[in-house]
Amino acid sequence: MREVAERLDPFFDHGRVPSKTIVKIENFNATDILDNPMHYHHRIKMELLIVAPLFVGGSTVEGTIRLVIDEAERTRNRKTLTMERLQIDLIGVEEVSGGRRHVFIDLGNELVDAAHAPPEDMIESQHTLLPQERSWMLIPCVRELPFMLRLPLEVGPPSFQSRHARIRYVLCATLHINDGGRPLSVRTSLPTEILSVYDREFG
Q1: Is residue 201 situated within a structural domain?
Q2: Secondary structure string (H, E, C) spanning 161-193
Q3: pLDDT value at residue 13
Q4: Angle at Cα 12 formed by Cα 11 and Cα 18, nearest 5°?
Q5: Can you say how many angstroms the Cα of residue 21 is from the centroid of all Cα atoms in its chain?
Q6: Averaged pLDDT score across all residues of the chain
């Protein structure tokens, strides 16, 4: 099984993308994502690209996160912009009129964290700024980073919408940065279609 997992992992140029999908029990992060699906920063553009229009339970959700750092404006006195973490999340949520909702699935994957450095062509050095911290100084670049999330067989009901209720899946990428001493997040989200596995015996 370990060999199969390693073979399926997508690649960074300098190594494999960490593809250990995390099932999140507490939904604090999911609540923040649903309430604030987009966060912008004037020096960073980020978008999500997926490989298929829909995915099924038991398979994987795959795609790339496209990052553009400092594309347009360049000034001499620019504050230090550092990267701390990059994560991908998939959230399934049931919502009814009146603002009530229930998160029935919350999956995540840390693409850049304390154990996984970003690609070399995004940062000044693979060495962190401080030994006790895990952050890297960003440089101007255009980069596409692959991701993968493994779905359980019983992923949940398909997307649905009526006058008073809806079921939806949200794919979200969040980049945690530090801009001149201020911790910030850059976030982009994408509605995603997820289907349960079709079983001929019961379908």
Answers
A1: no
A2: ECCCEEEEEEEEEEEEEEECCEEEEEEEEEEEE
A3: 45
A4: 70
A5: 11
A6: 82
Q: What are the pLDDT digits (tens) for 51-82? A: 999 999 999 999 999 999 985 555 555 668 89
* Global confidence as pTM: 0.82
Distance (Å, rounded) from C-alpha 108 to C-alpha 22?
5
Q: How far apart are the first and last CA of the chain?
A: 30
Angle at 36 between CA 32 and CA 40, to 5 degrees: 125
Percentages of the chain per state (helix, strand, coil), in multiples of 5 = 10, 50, 40
Residue 200 placed within a domain: no
The structure tokens listed for 44 are: 């960073």
- The C-alpha angle with vertex 113 and arms to 51 and 124, in degrees rounded to 5, equals 95
Domain count, the chain: 1
* Cα-Cα-Cα-Cα dihedral sign, residues 33, 36, 37, 40: negative
